[in-house]
Amino acid sequence: xxxxxxxxxxxxxxxxxxxxxxxxxxxxxxxxxxxxxxxxxxxxxxxxxxxxxxxxxxxxxxxxxxxxxxxxxxxxxxxxxxxxxxxxxxxxxxxxxxxxxxxxxxxxxxxxxxxxxxxxxxxxxxxxxxxxxxxxxxxxxxxxxxxxxxxxxxxxxxxxxxxxxxxxxxxxxxxxxxxxxxxxxxxxxxxxxxxxxxxxxxxxxxxxxxxxxxxxxxxxxxxxxxxxxxxxxxxxxxxxxxxxxxxxxxxxxxxxxxxxxxxxxxxxxxxxxxxxxxxxxxxxxxxxxxxxxxxxxxxxxxxxxxxxxxxxxxxxxxxxxxxxxxxxxxxxxxxxxxxxxxxxxxxxxxxxxxxxxxxxxxxxxxxxxxxxxxxxxxxx
Length: 380
Hints:
CATH architecture of the largest domain: 3-Layer(aba) Sandwich
Number of helices: 15
CATH superfamily of the largest domain: Mur-like, catalytic domain
Strand order of the largest sheet: 4-3-2-5-1-6-7-8
Distance between the termini: 28 Å
Number of domains: 2
CATH topology of the largest domain: UDP-N-acetylmuramoyl-L-alanine:D-glutamate ligase
Low-confidence stretches: none
Largest sheet: 8 strands, mixed
Shape: globular
Strand content: 15-25%
Number of strands: 17
Mean pLDDT: 90
CATH class of the largest domain: Alpha Beta
């Protein structure tokens, strides 16, 4: 079997299987519970969890720890989801591990399989910390098949409402399902804090870091962030609060995030003209991104089929004066651009090839936002 064949098989698992923690827990038990030897930091939340997990990983590594990082979704290759000390799992290691797990994990979904693979790989690599980003919600997510040393929840918003519910208290209950003992909460959402207090007696409420121009400030030191400072200040504040529950935190530790690569997360591809790539995939994330855009820009857009793309497009129309609806290369997730266009009241054009859509947007000679899906950005 080749690496490409293993990846194709994994993607074929994605359809028709609802998320659930029990199947992942059973698979891990059959494998001898490799996760039980790990110190796990479980990072959930509606938005910001990927950036926060990456910052925790980077700061721990700056202190000399061997760290495993599991994140989703990927942008360019599925191997991005599993890293040790900042390096992606190799094609060879991925394939060998896939073949070992294939029989015992045959009934697992795409995400469940990769979660089990990550826990197994991190055990083999003898990592000192495993930073795991929750895929969806928390309570029923495959990553929650363990008892984490620390839970981190970055905030609350509406996403995956078919599984998590539509009311804030329902979503908060699902997010707080990852709490085992100690928990760090980012932001001040009352529903989230209320549920967290019920689940843990050891609750820390993180505060976003102050900003000074295009930098964040930590204990008087000005620090560059991977994207707009105010955009990442809250995530970095949550990451710092989480790290303080585990280790000492110095200015040097926090400054280690300055060279962190956060692809597709408020990624400024060009400043003049302004071009931003951001994988915002729900209305709450789109609202945040819009705060950094001028009053007129061209939008290149695709979204996954399960997302609330109608609301996302409606929000984008408040500033975007032209849309290019396109596809991503991950066909099972990519919504039909013609269907997306039906939700749009602004001027638009459908260009199925994403690279051609971006080129057309750039030809309009103004600010450009590419958004709606990580997979879209990975297709460029």
